[in-house]
Amino acid sequence: MRGSVDRIVRFVVFGRDFRGSGAVWAGVLGLALCAGLGYGQPGPAESIGAHNTVRGWVDSWSVDEGVESVEGLGCAAVTLRLEGRVIGRGRALAQDGDPLVLAARGAIARARATVRAGRDTEPTAEEWGALAKGLTVSLELGGRAVPISDADLASPYLGMSVGRDALVVRLGDRGAVMTPDGFVSSGIDPARAAYALATELGNDGGLALASIGELLERGFTFARSEMVWVAQPGTGKGAVFLDRGGRVIETSEVSLASVRVMGEGLVSYLGAQRWAGVEALGIVGTRDVVTGKCEPEIAPVYEQALAALALSRWGAVRDDPRAIGIARDILSELARVEPGEVAPWLGVADAAACVIAVDEFRALGEATSGPMDQLWARSVERVERAHDPVKGYEPDVVGGMRGLVAWALVRANDPGKEDAVRRVYRELDRGMLVGQMPFLGFAELELAGNGSEVGAREALRAMRDRVWEHQIVRADLEDSGDRDLLGAIVFTTKRDVMPTSDVVRPAAFLCAMLGDPRLSGMRMEDGLSTEFVRISDLMRFVRQLVMDDSSAFLSAAPEKCVGGVRVSLTDWRVSPAASAMVLLGCAEFERSVLSIVGRSSEERAGGGGSETP
Question: Structure pTM?
């Protein structure tokens, strides 16, 4: 049994996969995906070869039609970008000729037109050559198109694997296609794309208002084709295979070292979100990866405070002065209310987040200024008005805010803190506790302190079990290529619902539970391996949401987006709030792993294991 502990420790510290068949399964599925089983897409070698061919055409700004065609190619798309901005795109179907040639010719022609439109004179040969070197090439290749059934046409996403399938619309002998790169760039869903393509083919703007049934009556047909996507992640870089615009993360990559790297990337991302103006406005809001623009321009107070909290905790766990410095800057600017700004302590959720963030920062031993002390004091006043031990929570404390306010009251050492925490459990169905994470969970642990028991241990364990019941596991994906969904949590049985970054909220606390022997409820020797698989799969999906360098070509502002957490695998917006939650989870993962390693070392030194509560 002691050997089992050693294997776990080796995994979490060094990233070695102790699960045996998991790595084999992932490798086999990955090869099946690249080979395009059941769809007839080109294989890996053919795909890279085709990308090299197109890259050569782009460098010379001409297409050699004498190149041997890719066998069985049903559709293709070529997208050319300059500094993240699309300057040329071509799409083609096999019914019109060689798709690769047609798509490349169309993309190059449009890129030439775009360049010429911005100049008074024709570029020289040297200038054309320099421009070509600055372009990135995205290539998508698909095999035969599979008709979409009537039942799938009635579903929200037309039964397509969003971000992986191309949509093919035909009318008579003409056809049009929208590929994954196009979906990401435009931000539209398959249903809207269907209307757009039908409008294009029918040359009738009124078709945009027609139903799918009416389009079928007009003679339109709909099919999908699973695509192989190969792209240059940056200028001058070699092509990589992408899945929904990103690299598929394997569970075997999840380790203490890789989570640390993810955390460092999140710190860099949050640091890059500083408001560029002279005003003390903190950080910007959710950023569209493709355009680089933010909406809202300034992040809400709650999100800014959450970012400061996560940075402070990460800074404490990792002894990271950079993270602590960014946290100090955010809190200092929150404390300075600019003309026209709403005071951060007016809203109850904002005030609660500020209480926790300032207290976390103070715990570092850092000195706080007069304005930050005022932020703390006035936020505490607002939070204390939100709860009464006799009457309970005020009506405006709704949803997940209760766990947040309860945690703030614990941090403020309010006399009603115990009631504030217990009342959440009493007044909410246990099935709703996931929505209170991680705030309620952290409040519970802080109430327990160093005691031998956690008051709501059973409720928190039940919450964890509920999460695991809804986790996507390997068996769920055996008949699909959607391996980038492994580890995600989906609380609905509806079709076409993609898991989102909402998963990062319970993930942050589940990482904390992992290393707490009062909540683990299992023996070191024979239980933690199962929990590690679940946590590592969950962290794998969380890492999948993080934008990395492989997707940088998609963005007009990659330096502001890389390291941030996307809303979902198909929603290319990076959010400070979700990123902060993941950074909290990274800090708790580190704490838990080091705690487990320390306990296992003690067990080995003592000559045996022990049962945890």
Answer: 0.90
